[in-house]
From TrEMBL, chain A:
This protein's UniProt keywords: Phosphoprotein, Phosphotransferase system, Sugar transport, Transferase, Transport
Gene3D superfamilies, alphabetized: Mannitol-specific EII, Chain A
Designated name of the protein: PTS fructose transporter subunit IIA
Organism: Lacrimispora celerecrescens
InterPro entries: PTrfase/Anion_transptr, PTS_EIIA_type-2_dom, PTS_IIA_fruc, PTS_SugarTrans_NitroReg
Record-linked PROSITE patterns: PTS_EIIA_TYPE_2 (PS51094), PTS_EIIA_TYPE_2_HIS (PS00372)
UniProtKB/TrEMBL annotation, chain B:
One GO MF term attached to the UniProt entry: protein-N(PI)-phosphohistidine-fructose phosphotransferase system transporter activity
Lineage: Bacteria, Bacillati, Bacillota, Clostridia, Lachnospirales
GO cellular component terms listed in the entry, alphabetical order: plasma membrane
Species of origin: Lacrimispora celerecrescens
Protein name: PTS fructose transporter subunit IIB
Transmembrane segments: none
Keywords attached to this entry: Kinase, Phosphoprotein, Phosphotransferase system, Sugar transport, Transferase, Transport
GO biological process, one term: phosphoenolpyruvate-dependent sugar phosphotransferase system
Pfam families in the record: PTS_IIB
PTS EIIB type-2 domain sequence ranges: 1-98
Length: 149, 102
């Protein structure tokens, strides 16, 4: 399996109107719900916020990776969003964010090792400066695939 | 220098793997040899072997959860929160050089 197999067009929105953290999380979580990754929207959002309280998810370079390991998640997925304007977000480089990867992971993920591995692989790529550069410039789904390939 | 590292974050989903990549790139840039074991949601990957440990100059544990140090008896171990790697991977590697006097 390759990383692009986890990038599902239905949960990617690169033209988000959201202007704050809550709108970003709600919009992307809503996409995950609609596409069947998340069973209970409010329950999932609550778990995402729990993780937010544990530590910073803005990884620098205007990218954030909020994530919820939650009993309200049915299957492993990643929603990707880019906002038209920068959004305030707690980040390691203290810069605002406009590119978001919202991870959905079921609390019991024993049966989902293959997908978790893809998530781990994708996360690893976010630690690579060359790939981060490409992501910054990505404006279409194809650009995203290209950045991760 | 031969550095061994372990990364582990609370959820084991993302930071563990981002930190691995950052450490590898920073070490490469600074001319060090590094092997990073990840302890995350998919279990232990790229496990440090007894040979790796024997040959290592230093062990770097970059974790927000408890990581067992039993394997590293007699070796210099540096422990830091994962946020330091996220913020400044090269700074972390340079600091290890300073500490080890190499």
């Amino acid at each position: 399996m390759a990383v692009k197999e986890i990038l599902d067009k239905r949960v990617i929105d690169l033209k988000m109107k959201a202007v704050n953290k809550d709108e970003v999380i709600r919009h992307l979580a809503g996409l995950l719900k609609k596409a069947g990754y998340v069973e209970d929207l409010e329950g999932y959002i609550k778990d995402v916020y729990l993780r937010e309280e544990e530590g910073i998810t803005g990884i620098g370079g205007h990218v954030a990776i909020p994530h919820g390991k939650s009993e309200f998640v049915d299957k492993v997925g990643i929603a990707v969003g880019r906002t038209e304007q920068m959004v305030e977000w707690e980040s390691y480089d203290e810069e605002p964010v406009d590119l978001f990867f919202l991870f959905a992971v079921p609390s019991d993920s024993e049966g989902a090792k293959g997908h978790l591995r893809l998530i781990a692989e994708l996360a690893g790529k976010l630690g690579n400066e060359a790939i981060m550069g490409k992501l910054q410039a990505a404006s279409t789904y194809e650009d995203l695939l290209d950045a991760f390939s | 220098m031969k550095i061994l590292a372990i990364t582990a974050c609370t959820a084991g989903i993302a930071h563990t793997y981002i930190a691995k990549e950052k450490l590898e790139n920073a070490a490469k840039e600074l001319g060090d040899h590094i092997k990073v074991e990840t302890q995350g949601s998919i279990g232990v990957e790229n496990e440090l072997t007894p040979e790796d440990i024997r040959e290592a100059d230093v062990i770097l544990i970059s974790a927000d959860i408890r990581v067992s140090k039993d394997r590293f008896t007699g070796k210099p171990v540096v422990e830091i929160p994962i946020s330091m790697v996220m913020k400044s991977p090269k700074g972390v590697i340079s600091k290890i050089h300073e500490k080890m006097g190499k």
